[in-house]
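Just scan my protein:

——
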Amino acid sequence: MIRVTKEFNFEIAHALWNYDGPCANIHGHSYRLFVTVIGEPINDDQNPKNGMVIDFGDLKMIIKQEIINPLDHAIILNKKALESLESLNKQMFKKQYFVDYQPTCENMVIDFAEKLQGKIPKGLKLHSIKLHETATSFAEWFAEDN
């Protein structure tokens, strides 16, 4: 079995609803996302993907569709914060992404895992997700723990 990892970088603004610290205010992060799948390399000379667990381009397409495109340069907020935004200028908040959870790094990796598990090609398994919120702070999700 071989683990294959693809790294992504994207920007998100968020605020933590009802939080008792500075992260209650809208602020942004430059996120680094690492998605790892596990499987056996294809062993078929007739297959154009011979020798690969998954084509990095195919993995990139899945992650971009499910995570990066909806979230990059968006503001992600708990749905409970919706009332707070009703009076704000929509020009600056066109790309809003509301979730049923507190948008912490920890909850985001859970959400990402749920989104990706059904999209990984047959024969492969989502192994882990690592999301850096800052250069020194990250959350990880491992399939073996769930």
Notes: The domain at 2-145 is CATH 3.30.479.10 (Tetrahydropterin Synthase; Chain A). The chain has a mean pLDDT of 91. The chain is about 25% helix and 35% strand. The two ends are 19 Å apart (CA to CA).
